[in-house]
Amino acid sequence: MNIPSYKPYFSQKEKEYILDVLERGQISGDGYYTEQVSAFIEHAFHVRKVLMTTSGTHALEMAVSLADLEPEDEVIMPSFTFASTANAVILRGAKPVFVEVNPDNLNIEPDDIERKITEKTKIIIPVHYAGVACDLNRIIAIARDHNLMVIEDAAQGVNAKYRGQYLGTIADFGCYSFHGTKNYTCGEGGALLINLESTLLREKAEIIRQKGTNRCQFLRGDVNQYNWIDTGSSYSPSDLLMAVLLAQLEDMEEIKDKRKAVYGIYRNFFEQYEKRGILKMMRIPDACDPNYHIFWVVFNTEEMRDHVLTALNSRGVAASFHYLPLHSSPMGRKMGYKPQDLAITEKAAMCLLRMPLYAGMTELEIGHTLNIVEAVIGAL
Length: 380
Ligand SMILES: Cc1ncc(COP(=O)(O)O)c(C=O)c1O
Prior knowledge:
Aspartate Aminotransferase, domain 2, 2 domains, 7-stranded mixed β-sheet, 14 helices, 13 strands, binds pyridoxal-5'-phosphate
Protein backbone atom coordinates (compact mmCIF):
# COMPACT_ATOMS: atom_id res chain seq x y z
CA MET A 1 0.00 0.00 0.00
CA ASN A 2 1.41 3.41 -0.96
CA ILE A 3 0.59 6.24 1.40
CA PRO A 4 1.66 9.74 0.37
CA SER A 5 2.82 12.33 2.85
CA TYR A 6 0.14 14.78 1.67
CA LYS A 7 -2.78 14.75 -0.75
CA PRO A 8 -5.06 17.60 -1.80
CA TYR A 9 -8.73 17.17 -0.97
CA PHE A 10 -11.00 18.13 -3.87
CA SER A 11 -14.74 18.47 -4.06
CA GLN A 12 -16.42 18.82 -7.46
CA LYS A 13 -16.30 22.61 -7.19
CA GLU A 14 -12.68 22.93 -8.34
CA LYS A 15 -13.59 21.56 -11.78
CA GLU A 16 -16.74 23.64 -11.98
CA TYR A 17 -14.90 26.89 -11.16
CA ILE A 18 -12.04 26.12 -13.58
CA LEU A 19 -14.54 25.59 -16.39
CA ASP A 20 -16.14 28.86 -15.44
CA VAL A 21 -12.79 30.68 -15.76
CA LEU A 22 -12.28 29.16 -19.20
CA GLU A 23 -15.75 30.23 -20.25
CA ARG A 24 -15.10 33.74 -18.95
CA GLY A 25 -11.97 33.76 -21.09
CA GLN A 26 -9.90 35.71 -18.55
CA ILE A 27 -7.12 33.47 -17.27
CA SER A 28 -4.44 36.03 -16.41
CA GLY A 29 -4.20 37.59 -12.96
CA ASP A 30 -6.59 39.86 -11.06
CA GLY A 31 -9.74 38.55 -12.71
CA TYR A 32 -13.09 37.51 -11.23
CA TYR A 33 -11.75 34.63 -9.08
CA THR A 34 -8.81 36.61 -7.68
CA GLU A 35 -11.35 39.18 -6.55
CA GLN A 36 -13.61 36.49 -5.06
CA VAL A 37 -10.81 34.72 -3.22
CA SER A 38 -9.34 37.97 -1.85
CA ALA A 39 -12.79 39.00 -0.59
CA PHE A 40 -13.30 35.54 0.94
CA ILE A 41 -10.02 35.73 2.88
CA GLU A 42 -10.62 39.34 3.98
CA HIS A 43 -14.07 38.44 5.23
CA ALA A 44 -13.43 34.99 6.75
CA PHE A 45 -10.18 35.89 8.53
CA HIS A 46 -10.95 39.58 9.25
CA VAL A 47 -8.07 40.99 7.25
CA ARG A 48 -7.65 44.66 6.34
CA LYS A 49 -6.05 44.02 2.93
CA VAL A 50 -5.12 40.85 1.07
CA LEU A 51 -3.04 40.61 -2.09
CA MET A 52 -3.00 37.18 -3.68
CA THR A 53 0.45 36.06 -4.82
CA THR A 54 2.07 33.36 -6.92
CA SER A 55 3.52 31.66 -3.81
CA GLY A 56 4.17 31.95 -0.10
CA THR A 57 7.79 32.68 -1.04
CA HIS A 58 6.65 35.66 -3.09
CA ALA A 59 4.38 36.92 -0.30
CA LEU A 60 7.44 36.91 1.99
CA GLU A 61 9.54 38.69 -0.64
CA MET A 62 6.87 41.37 -0.99
CA ALA A 63 6.55 41.85 2.78
CA VAL A 64 10.31 42.24 3.21
CA SER A 65 10.48 44.63 0.21
CA LEU A 66 7.92 46.85 1.93
CA ALA A 67 10.23 47.21 4.93
CA ASP A 68 12.88 49.20 3.00
CA LEU A 69 15.85 47.34 4.42
CA GLU A 70 19.39 48.71 4.11
CA PRO A 71 22.38 46.45 3.40
CA GLU A 72 23.69 44.98 6.70
CA ASP A 73 20.28 45.29 8.38
CA GLU A 74 19.38 42.19 10.37
CA VAL A 75 16.20 40.12 10.37
CA ILE A 76 15.53 37.65 13.17
CA MET A 77 13.93 34.31 12.30
CA PRO A 78 14.07 30.67 13.41
CA SER A 79 16.63 28.42 11.76
CA PHE A 80 13.91 25.74 11.73
CA THR A 81 12.06 27.04 8.67
CA PHE A 82 12.01 26.82 4.89
CA ALA A 83 14.69 28.54 2.81
CA SER A 84 12.11 31.06 1.53
CA THR A 85 11.97 32.87 4.90
CA ALA A 86 15.72 33.59 4.69
CA ASN A 87 15.92 34.14 0.92
CA ALA A 88 13.39 36.97 1.13
CA VAL A 89 15.84 38.80 3.39
CA ILE A 90 19.03 37.96 1.50
CA LEU A 91 17.47 39.13 -1.78
CA ARG A 92 17.14 42.62 -0.22
CA GLY A 93 20.83 42.57 0.72
CA ALA A 94 20.09 42.14 4.43
CA LYS A 95 21.17 39.43 6.87
CA PRO A 96 19.07 36.65 8.42
CA VAL A 97 19.89 36.06 12.09
CA PHE A 98 18.87 32.59 13.22
CA VAL A 99 17.49 31.93 16.69
CA GLU A 100 16.44 28.91 18.70
CA VAL A 101 13.04 27.23 18.89
CA ASN A 102 11.01 26.00 21.82
CA PRO A 103 11.36 22.18 21.87
CA ASP A 104 7.66 21.68 22.73
CA ASN A 105 6.32 23.22 19.52
CA LEU A 106 9.43 24.09 17.44
CA ASN A 107 8.36 27.73 17.25
CA ILE A 108 10.75 30.64 17.67
CA GLU A 109 11.89 31.19 21.28
CA PRO A 110 11.21 34.76 22.47
CA ASP A 111 14.07 34.70 25.05
CA ASP A 112 16.54 33.97 22.27
CA ILE A 113 15.02 36.74 20.10
CA GLU A 114 15.81 39.20 22.90
CA ARG A 115 19.37 37.95 23.20
CA LYS A 116 20.00 38.39 19.46
CA ILE A 117 18.59 41.88 18.93
CA THR A 118 21.27 44.42 17.93
CA GLU A 119 21.31 48.02 16.69
CA LYS A 120 20.92 46.63 13.16
CA THR A 121 17.82 44.49 13.78
CA LYS A 122 14.81 45.70 11.76
CA ILE A 123 12.34 42.81 11.50
CA ILE A 124 11.30 39.67 13.36
CA ILE A 125 9.76 36.84 11.29
CA PRO A 126 8.02 34.27 13.51
CA VAL A 127 7.12 31.08 11.63
CA HIS A 128 3.96 29.31 12.84
CA TYR A 129 5.29 25.78 12.49
CA ALA A 130 2.74 23.03 11.79
CA GLY A 131 -0.10 25.57 11.98
CA VAL A 132 0.49 26.12 15.72
CA ALA A 133 0.91 29.77 16.66
CA CYS A 134 4.13 31.28 17.99
CA ASP A 135 4.03 33.21 21.28
CA LEU A 136 2.90 36.33 19.42
CA ASN A 137 1.99 38.39 22.49
CA ARG A 138 5.57 38.25 23.69
CA ILE A 139 7.09 38.62 20.24
CA ILE A 140 5.00 41.69 19.41
CA ALA A 141 5.83 43.22 22.82
CA ILE A 142 9.56 42.70 22.19
CA ALA A 143 9.16 44.23 18.71
CA ARG A 144 7.40 47.30 20.14
CA ASP A 145 10.15 47.81 22.74
CA HIS A 146 12.78 47.84 20.00
CA ASN A 147 10.74 49.49 17.23
CA LEU A 148 10.84 46.45 14.94
CA MET A 149 8.46 45.24 12.26
CA VAL A 150 6.89 41.77 12.61
CA ILE A 151 6.06 39.62 9.58
CA GLU A 152 4.17 36.41 10.37
CA ASP A 153 5.32 33.55 8.19
CA ALA A 154 1.95 31.81 8.31
CA ALA A 155 2.70 29.67 5.24
CA GLN A 156 1.45 26.69 7.26
CA GLY A 157 -1.00 28.64 9.41
CA VAL A 158 -4.05 29.32 7.23
CA ASN A 159 -7.30 28.96 9.22
CA ALA A 160 -5.51 28.57 12.57
CA LYS A 161 -5.87 30.97 15.47
CA TYR A 162 -3.96 32.55 18.35
CA ARG A 163 -6.08 33.91 21.22
CA GLY A 164 -9.11 34.00 18.90
CA GLN A 165 -7.42 35.84 16.02
CA TYR A 166 -6.45 34.22 12.74
CA LEU A 167 -2.74 33.68 12.10
CA GLY A 168 -1.33 36.08 9.57
CA THR A 169 -3.67 38.88 10.70
CA ILE A 170 -2.04 39.73 14.03
CA ALA A 171 1.36 41.30 13.30
CA ASP A 172 2.23 44.00 10.69
CA PHE A 173 2.15 41.58 7.75
CA GLY A 174 1.16 37.94 7.27
CA CYS A 175 2.19 35.52 4.54
CA TYR A 176 0.17 32.47 3.48
CA SER A 177 1.11 29.58 1.21
CA PHE A 178 -1.30 27.57 -0.92
CA HIS A 179 1.36 25.19 -2.23
CA GLY A 180 0.32 21.61 -3.01
CA THR A 181 1.57 20.43 0.40
CA LYS A 182 -0.68 22.83 2.33
CA ASN A 183 -4.14 22.29 3.84
CA TYR A 184 -5.81 24.51 1.24
CA THR A 185 -4.11 24.53 -2.11
CA CYS A 186 -4.10 25.61 -5.73
CA GLY A 187 -0.80 23.90 -6.48
CA GLU A 188 1.33 27.03 -6.24
CA GLY A 189 -0.01 30.18 -4.63
CA GLY A 190 0.15 32.51 -1.68
CA ALA A 191 -1.19 35.68 -0.13
CA LEU A 192 0.23 38.78 1.49
CA LEU A 193 -1.88 40.16 4.33
CA ILE A 194 -1.33 43.83 5.08
CA ASN A 195 -2.53 44.50 8.59
CA LEU A 196 -1.21 48.06 8.86
CA GLU A 197 -3.62 50.93 8.24
CA SER A 198 -1.58 52.74 5.56
CA THR A 199 -2.90 53.64 2.12
CA LEU A 200 0.62 54.46 0.99
CA LEU A 201 1.85 51.00 1.95
CA ARG A 202 -1.04 49.30 0.17
CA GLU A 203 -0.38 51.27 -3.01
CA LYS A 204 3.32 50.44 -2.79
CA ALA A 205 2.49 46.74 -2.35
CA GLU A 206 0.19 46.79 -5.39
CA ILE A 207 2.96 48.38 -7.47
CA ILE A 208 5.58 45.82 -6.35
CA ARG A 209 3.15 43.02 -7.21
CA GLN A 210 2.38 44.39 -10.69
CA LYS A 211 5.92 44.61 -12.14
CA GLY A 212 6.51 48.06 -10.68
CA THR A 213 3.48 49.54 -12.46
CA ASN A 214 0.23 51.12 -11.25
CA ARG A 215 -1.84 48.54 -13.18
CA CYS A 216 -4.10 47.97 -10.14
CA GLN A 217 -5.14 51.64 -10.13
CA PHE A 218 -5.81 51.32 -13.85
CA LEU A 219 -7.95 48.16 -13.36
CA ARG A 220 -9.97 50.00 -10.70
CA GLY A 221 -10.49 52.87 -13.13
CA ASP A 222 -8.56 55.33 -10.90
CA VAL A 223 -6.22 56.26 -13.80
CA ASN A 224 -6.75 55.93 -17.56
CA GLN A 225 -3.40 54.32 -18.37
CA TYR A 226 -0.75 52.56 -16.35
CA ASN A 227 2.94 53.26 -16.18
CA TRP A 228 6.25 52.15 -14.65
CA ILE A 229 6.36 53.71 -11.18
CA ASP A 230 8.94 51.80 -9.10
CA THR A 231 10.82 48.51 -8.90
CA GLY A 232 8.63 45.42 -8.74
CA SER A 233 8.08 41.92 -10.00
CA SER A 234 5.35 39.61 -11.26
CA TYR A 235 3.50 38.28 -8.22
CA SER A 236 -0.11 38.05 -9.34
CA PRO A 237 -1.43 34.49 -9.85
CA SER A 238 -3.49 33.22 -12.79
CA ASP A 239 -7.26 33.33 -12.28
CA LEU A 240 -7.31 29.56 -13.03
CA LEU A 241 -5.40 28.97 -9.80
CA MET A 242 -7.60 31.33 -7.84
CA ALA A 243 -10.67 29.39 -9.02
CA VAL A 244 -9.22 26.21 -7.51
CA LEU A 245 -8.33 28.04 -4.33
CA LEU A 246 -11.79 29.51 -3.89
CA ALA A 247 -13.28 26.01 -4.03
CA GLN A 248 -10.77 24.84 -1.42
CA LEU A 249 -11.39 27.73 0.96
CA GLU A 250 -15.15 27.35 0.70
CA ASP A 251 -14.66 23.84 2.13
CA MET A 252 -11.99 24.81 4.63
CA GLU A 253 -13.88 23.77 7.78
CA GLU A 254 -14.68 20.35 6.36
CA ILE A 255 -11.03 19.89 5.36
CA LYS A 256 -9.89 21.01 8.82
CA ASP A 257 -12.25 18.58 10.59
CA LYS A 258 -11.03 15.67 8.47
CA ARG A 259 -7.42 16.52 9.29
CA LYS A 260 -8.27 16.90 12.97
CA ALA A 261 -9.69 13.36 13.00
CA VAL A 262 -6.40 11.90 11.70
CA TYR A 263 -4.40 14.07 14.09
CA GLY A 264 -6.50 12.77 17.01
CA ILE A 265 -5.84 9.13 16.10
CA TYR A 266 -2.09 9.80 15.93
CA ARG A 267 -2.12 11.53 19.34
CA ASN A 268 -3.93 8.63 21.00
CA PHE A 269 -1.59 6.13 19.43
CA PHE A 270 1.69 7.85 20.28
CA GLU A 271 0.70 8.68 23.86
CA GLN A 272 1.74 5.23 25.11
CA TYR A 273 5.23 5.69 23.66
CA GLU A 274 5.55 9.14 25.15
CA LYS A 275 4.64 7.63 28.55
CA ARG A 276 7.36 5.02 28.01
CA GLY A 277 9.84 7.87 27.46
CA ILE A 278 10.76 6.93 23.89
CA LEU A 279 9.59 10.11 22.22
CA LYS A 280 7.83 13.44 22.72
CA MET A 281 4.73 14.53 20.82
CA MET A 282 4.17 18.08 19.59
CA ARG A 283 2.44 20.28 22.18
CA ILE A 284 -0.30 22.78 21.39
CA PRO A 285 -0.28 25.73 23.83
CA ASP A 286 -3.68 26.73 25.31
CA ALA A 287 -3.67 30.02 23.37
CA CYS A 288 -3.60 28.17 20.03
CA ASP A 289 -6.34 26.75 17.86
CA PRO A 290 -4.33 24.89 15.19
CA ASN A 291 -5.28 23.84 11.66
CA TYR A 292 -3.77 20.33 12.00
CA HIS A 293 -1.28 20.92 9.22
CA ILE A 294 1.34 18.51 10.59
CA PHE A 295 1.57 15.82 13.26
CA TRP A 296 5.13 15.29 14.46
CA VAL A 297 7.00 13.48 17.20
CA VAL A 298 10.62 13.80 18.27
CA PHE A 299 12.43 10.59 19.23
CA ASN A 300 15.09 10.47 21.91
CA THR A 301 17.76 9.64 19.37
CA GLU A 302 18.39 10.09 15.68
CA GLU A 303 18.99 6.33 15.35
CA MET A 304 15.49 5.54 16.67
CA ARG A 305 13.93 8.10 14.34
CA ASP A 306 15.83 6.73 11.35
CA HIS A 307 14.87 3.18 12.24
CA VAL A 308 11.14 4.01 12.26
CA LEU A 309 11.39 6.28 9.21
CA THR A 310 13.20 3.62 7.17
CA ALA A 311 10.64 0.98 8.13
CA LEU A 312 7.77 3.23 7.07
CA ASN A 313 9.39 4.33 3.81
CA SER A 314 10.38 0.79 2.84
CA ARG A 315 6.74 -0.26 3.15
CA GLY A 316 5.40 2.54 1.00
CA VAL A 317 4.50 5.07 3.71
CA ALA A 318 5.86 8.54 2.95
CA ALA A 319 6.55 9.62 6.52
CA SER A 320 9.42 12.08 6.56
CA PHE A 321 11.83 14.25 8.47
CA HIS A 322 11.18 17.96 8.10
CA TYR A 323 13.15 21.19 7.81
CA LEU A 324 16.89 20.73 7.78
CA PRO A 325 17.93 23.73 9.89
CA LEU A 326 19.05 26.71 7.84
CA HIS A 327 21.97 27.62 10.11
CA SER A 328 23.67 24.25 9.49
CA SER A 329 22.79 24.06 5.77
CA PRO A 330 25.56 24.66 3.20
CA MET A 331 24.31 28.26 2.87
CA GLY A 332 24.13 28.75 6.66
CA ARG A 333 27.71 27.50 7.04
CA LYS A 334 28.81 29.95 4.34
CA MET A 335 27.28 32.65 6.53
CA GLY A 336 29.52 31.49 9.38
CA TYR A 337 27.11 29.37 11.43
CA LYS A 338 28.11 26.06 13.01
CA PRO A 339 25.61 23.26 13.82
CA GLN A 340 26.19 23.58 17.58
CA ASP A 341 25.23 27.30 17.51
CA LEU A 342 21.57 26.24 17.79
CA ALA A 343 21.69 22.92 19.62
CA ILE A 344 17.94 22.58 20.36
CA THR A 345 17.02 23.16 16.72
CA GLU A 346 19.70 20.78 15.50
CA LYS A 347 18.67 17.95 17.85
CA ALA A 348 14.94 18.35 17.12
CA ALA A 349 15.46 18.31 13.36
CA MET A 350 17.60 15.18 13.52
CA CYS A 351 15.07 13.27 15.67
CA LEU A 352 11.77 14.50 14.17
CA LEU A 353 9.31 12.20 12.44
CA ARG A 354 6.50 13.77 10.42
CA MET A 355 3.57 11.43 9.84
CA PRO A 356 1.49 11.39 6.63
CA LEU A 357 -1.57 13.57 7.19
CA TYR A 358 -4.28 14.56 4.75
CA ALA A 359 -8.02 15.11 4.69
CA GLY A 360 -9.74 11.86 3.75
CA MET A 361 -6.91 9.58 4.92
CA THR A 362 -8.74 6.28 5.33
CA GLU A 363 -8.87 4.02 8.40
CA LEU A 364 -7.07 1.38 6.35
CA GLU A 365 -4.26 3.80 5.49
CA ILE A 366 -3.92 4.99 9.07
CA GLY A 367 -4.04 1.42 10.38
CA HIS A 368 -1.35 0.25 7.94
CA THR A 369 0.88 3.19 8.93
CA LEU A 370 0.48 2.67 12.67
CA ASN A 371 0.99 -1.11 12.46
CA ILE A 372 4.42 -0.48 10.98
CA VAL A 373 5.29 2.02 13.70
CA GLU A 374 4.05 -0.36 16.39
CA ALA A 375 6.10 -3.26 15.06
CA VAL A 376 9.27 -1.15 15.09
CA ILE A 377 8.87 0.82 18.32
CA GLY A 378 7.28 -2.08 20.14
CA ALA A 379 10.56 -3.95 19.67
CA LEU A 380 12.75 -1.09 20.94
C1 LIG B 1 7.48 28.26 6.74
C2 LIG B 1 7.39 28.38 5.25
N1 LIG B 1 7.54 29.60 4.69
C3 LIG B 1 7.45 29.76 3.36
C4 LIG B 1 7.20 28.71 2.51
C5 LIG B 1 7.13 28.93 1.03
O1 LIG B 1 5.83 28.77 0.52
P1 LIG B 1 5.63 28.43 -1.05
O2 LIG B 1 5.99 27.00 -1.23
O3 LIG B 1 4.18 28.70 -1.29
O4 LIG B 1 6.49 29.35 -1.81
C6 LIG B 1 7.06 27.43 3.05
C7 LIG B 1 6.86 26.31 2.13
O5 LIG B 1 6.34 25.36 2.18
C8 LIG B 1 7.14 27.26 4.45
O6 LIG B 1 6.99 26.05 5.02
